[in-house]
Amino acid sequence: MNTYLAVDFGGGSGRVMAGSICQGALKLEEVYRFPNHQVRMGNHVYWDFLALFEEMKNGLRQAVRKGYHIKSIGIDTWGVDFGLIDRNGNLLGNPVCYRDSRTDGLPEKFFDIETNALSQHYSTVGIQVMAINTLFQLYSMKMRNDVQLEVADRLLFMPDLFSYFLTGVANNEYCIASTSELLDACSRNWNSDLIRRLGVPEHLFGDIIMPGSVRGKLKKEIAEEIGLKEEVDVIAVGSHDTASAVFAVPTAKADRSRCAFLSSGTWSLLGVELDEPILTEEARLSGFTNEGGVGGKIRFLQNITGLWILQRLIAQWKEQGGECAYDVLLPAAEYEEISSVIDVDDKRFQNPADMEVAIADYCREHQLPVPATRGEYVRCVLQSLAQRYKQAIDKLNVLLPAPVEQLNIIGGGCRNALLNKLTENALGIPVVAGPVEATAIGNILVQAIAKGEISSREEIKEYS
Question: Which of 105, 129, 157, 412 is most buried by its number of CB atoms within 10 A?
Fold first, then answer.
């Protein structure tokens, strides 16, 4: 059967997934998984692009060895980070990680402190101002007179960069470019006025292509290296991982704005798909952002702290010893009756030395019952997430012409049945769980549509 390869890079690991379609069913197989480490060197934190590129080739090689008939390859990654190439096509340096401190405090320097400046900015770009965004990464380079900006020919976001070194063709995919805070949300193209104000060369920003476009063909030398004899297209998918995940959300509703999505993992991304952005001051103050989606759609969403707090608690308990597996903690939490609800987005929970202490201190400061058992801590965190999701849905309902009628939870977090139950109780609307492998599925569906094997995502009725 025709097989599509999804290369999915996350912040901690990457993988190559194979997908084949038969009679309305998509069959998935994980072909290869590899770690993704951030590297601190000198004054900055980098991604090891060279190692990641080699690991990607290892995954492609494994797929060839398994005998798959590979039709195309699609790549998705996290957002905002980028690499610069010179006019000879050489990478000028390892991409700097968004967690690097070089952008600290820069939004306040770039914008006037008056709300009006932020309001005008949002009315064009539709993206919440965040120091990690590409806009401020470039601003930090400009302020330091970084020589890379003087010799660079093109700026390529992470999936663009991987695709470039596979094909030799440089272009910028729409979904990933939208995370930069440098696009005009309505035109779906570069915001030239903002780029000129930023003071970096405009030629860095190339043609924007939409998901489903062929980026280029796999280079002959790469094909030979991995053992592939036939030509293979590298296809632009929703190359921001969340864009691919959202494209995989199944719904029978004709109006997808009535069906919200929640991409649940370390972070929670909650929102809806729209045809056009919402650029009002009310949307900005409510914390919503307008990112690009497959088919020219807008992913109107909030970025919420997700399962990070629970993940840190469990990691901490493992270090202390004792039983702390999910299949033990979640049943225990289900029967606890603690009423405490914490603000999961409070800065104290971003990376405390002791997460249990941070939660206890928060409860004391807000006159809430302090959890006494691990089950109570888990219950507290999960019901706090459910209440935070309710806040997001309530704000969505104010901004949308009609209220949300259903929430689809996708990604690894959708396997947390207790969180799903608490969320459904808090929202008062149906909560549907799955698919778990939404990112890989969305990536593969775009490829299959581009190749003409299916005409829409609705043709796929089953995942395995």
Answer: 157
Helices (H), ranges, 33-88: 49-65
Residue 381 one-letter amino acid: V
Q: How many CB atoms lie within 10 A of CB 456?
A: 9
Kindly report the backbone phi and psi dihedral angles of residue 47, in degrees, each rounded to the nearest multiple of 5, phi listed first: -95, 140
Q: In what order do the strands lie in the sheet with 431-433?
A: 289-292, 298-305, 267-274, 259-264, 406-410, 431-433
d(Cα 190, Cα 125) in Å, to the nearest integer? 10
Exposure b/e, 23-35, CB count within 10 A at least 16 = b? eeebebeebbebe
Contact 311, 324 (CB under 8 A): no
The H or E element that residue 309 is part of is helix 308-320
Q: Choosing from 76, 81, 233, 241, which is the catalytic residue?
A: 241
User: Does 241 participate in catalysis according to the annotation?
Assistant: yes
Contact 235, 400 (CB under 8 A): no
pTM: 0.92
Radius of gyration of the chain (CA): 22
Q: What are phi and psi of 328, to 5 degrees?
A: -100, -45
Mean pLDDT per 10-residue section of the chain, whose length is 464 residues: 93 93 93 94 95 98 96 97 97 94 93 77 96 96 96 98 98 98 98 96 97 97 94 97 93 75 91 97 96 97 92 92 86 95 93 94 98 97 98 97 95 93 97 93 97 91 79
Task: Return the closest-CA partner of residue 167 out of 156, 175, 176, 178.
Answer: 156
> What does the block give as tokens for 171?
């272009």
**Helix, strand or coil, per DSSP, at residue 417:** helix
Nearest to 197 by CA among 132, 120, 99: 120
Give me the sign of the Cα torsion angle 192, 195, 199, 201.
Answer: negative
How far is residue 233's CA from residue 214's CA, in Å, rounded to a whole number? 6
- Spatial distance between the Cα atoms of 26 and 281, rounded to a whole number of angstroms: 42
CB atoms within 10 A of CB 234: 25
CB atoms within 10 A of CB 153: 17
Q: Is 130 exposed, middle or buried (0-12, 13-18, 19+ CB in 10 A)?
A: middle
Q: How far apart are CA 384 and CA 387, in angstroms?
A: 5
Could you check whether the bond before residue 35 is cis, i.e. omega within 30 degrees of 0?
Answer: no
